[in-house]
Design a protein that fits this description.
Chain lengths: ~270, ~240
């Protein structure tokens, strides 16, 4: 047990943690873009190129599942890619974050969970400036409805929750197992393939579908596509499913991190 | 007198460095082969009792591995004791291995703000303090240059300037009192004198006995995680030196 009797209250501490978080988010962004904030738009390049590639290769074969429209296929592939790209970039950066902050947390007492979350924060910022406006425009053009535009926030928020949960879990595990990135690459590849990004969900056999439900990104992709691309009003059940997925993953990650963090300092 | 730091029967077990496996593949394989065992732990602090009053200047001496740095980490709250209680009253500033937390890629200014926030300041406060810190470290022209462009002496100057700008209640010094060239050393000493005069509680870990004798009124001799002697700095040093 450790009793500190600081003069400042719990509220001041929350505020300080927030300040620390925002300072680290800034650091992550600065380190990434070195002053050229146009660099954020580079992050758009990857999903756009990949969408083009998928459309060129699979577009014709799969267009029958998308009302015989290659454009619909392109939009479906793009929305899926946005999700998986955000996930893999945010979580792979967060993975090493606790270990790389080892030298500073051995000198100053800092809340360790802020480090992985700061990488999620930096990626959210990047998403808000890069892909998010594009998604909004697509949604508005297809649905002609502001409700859809607003509803889009729900699955995106769920995505952030899933990423935060995975970031907490993997950054904690990486403290104990330094060969984790090798396995983590495999896991992101599994998530990538098991998410219906470049193929229509309909082609997956029923038995396999039952296993694919375990993919926490699936309800998020489904909800985003329904809101952006269907032209109908947002499906509340799909939105709830995505939120549930986010809450479950975040809870697991947060509990694991909280249980293990006392052991971190011996290994950093 | 008010207590600044109080330890009641504090013990701490830590995993030993050699036992680190760090490897998922090996752990899983060891588990299946039935060779898995709990990592060994070592008693680093052994039911320590300790009271340090506000304003005291305390030197901590002892051989390598006696638990001096661990003790400081427990005081800072970085390590939690396995058993026993620790009470610390007041704001702590660690001045251990200056500049360890700098981010090489970021500019000097950004590092000042980040380091300051980590030490408990708000971002705004640090931005307004940055100029004085740069001035003290004599790095005014380097504000926008990445830290990797600084020499090691400049880095330590910067670390010293930030950490001593905090105005702590408890200052923790691990072997570093003055850095940089002779002129800057004088400046550091002047700054340290201020802390000494201002009634700050100071903990100083050092292997330089003259320094402890000169600047501390009390000293603690740690040996294998236990307190061997507490008392006037001169007595403590005499007994320690006789022992080795």
């Amino acid at each position: 047990m450790n009793f500190s009797l600081p003069s400042n209250s719990e509220k001041a501490r929350m505020w300080w943690i927030w300040e620390l978080f925002s300072v680290l988010v800034r650091r992550n962004l600065k380190r990434r873009y070195r002053g050229s904030f146009l660099g954020i738009y580079w992050s758009l390049l990857s999903p756009v190129i990949m969408t083009g590639l998928y459309a060129a290769i699979f577009g014709t074969a799969f267009s029958s599942y998308y009302n015989n429209s290659t454009l619909n296929y392109i939009l479906a592939a793009f929305t899926g890619l946005v999700v998986i790209n955000f996930f893999s970039s945010a979580t792979s950066q967060a993975l090493v974050s606790v270990v790389t902050s080892g030298s500073i947390v051995n000198k100053i007492k800092l809340p360790l969970f802020v480090f992985p979350l700061s990488f999620i924060g930096a990626n959210v910022f990047q998403l808000l400036l890069g892909v998010f406006p594009l998604l909004l425009v697509i949604t508005l053009l297809i649905s002609h409805n502001l409700i859809n535009v607003i509803a889009l926030i729900v699955p995106l928020l769920s995505l952030v929750l899933v990423c935060a949960g995975v970031a907490l879990l993997t950054s904690a595990l990486f403290v104990f197992f330094r060969d984790l990135p090798y396995f983590y690459e495999l896991i992101t590849f599994l998530l990538w393939i098991s998410s219906p990004i470049f193929y229509p969900a309909e082609i997956v056999p029923e038995e396999v579908k039952k296993i694919l439900i375990l993919n926490p990104l699936l309800p998020i992709i489904n909800s985003i596509r329904q809101i952006c691309l269907s032209g109908n009003l947002p499906d509340v059940m799909l939105m709830l499913a995505s939120v549930l997925s986010g809450v479950i993953v975040l809870t697991i990650g947060a509990i694991a991190f909280a249980l293990w963090q006392d052991k971190f300092m011996d290994l950093l | 007198m008010t207590e600044a730091i109080r330890f009641d029967k504090v013990s701490l077990w830590r995993r030993t460095q050699e036992e680190f496996s760090y490897d998922l593949k090996k752990t899983v394989l060891a588990f299946f082969e039935g060779k898995y065992r709990e990592p060994a732990k070592k008693l680093v602090l052994d039911s320590l009792d300790l009271t340090i009053n506000q304003g005291e200047k305390v030197g901590i001496i002892g051989s390598n591995g006696a638990g001096k740095s661990t003790l400081l980490k427990v005081i800072c709250g970085i390590l939690q004791p396995t058993t026993g209680t620790v009470r610390v009253r007041g704001k702590i500033a660690p001045l251990i291995e200056l500049g360890a937390g700098f981010d090489d890629e970021l500019s000097v200014l950004d590092n000042i703000v980040m380091y300051g926030v980590m030490l408990g300041f708000s971002r705004r406060e640090m931005i307004s303090r940055a100029k004085l810190i740069l001035e003290f470290a004599e790095l005014e022209e380097y504000g926008l240059i990445p830290v990797k462009g600084l020499s090691s002496g400049m880095k330590s100057r910067l670390g010293f300037a930030i950490a001593t700008d905090v105005e702590p209640d408890i200052l923790i010094l691990d072997e570093v009192l003055s850095v940089g060239d002779e002129r800057f050393k004088k400046k550091c000493e002047a700054k340290m004198d201020q802390f000494w005069q201002a009634g700050t509680t100071i903990l100083l870990v050092s292997h330089t006995m003259e320094l402890i004798a000169e600047s501390c009124d009390k000293a603690i001799w740690l040996d294998q995680g236990t307190v061997k002697f507490v008392g006037a700095a001169k007595d403590c040093i005499d007994i320690y030196l006789q022992h080795i």
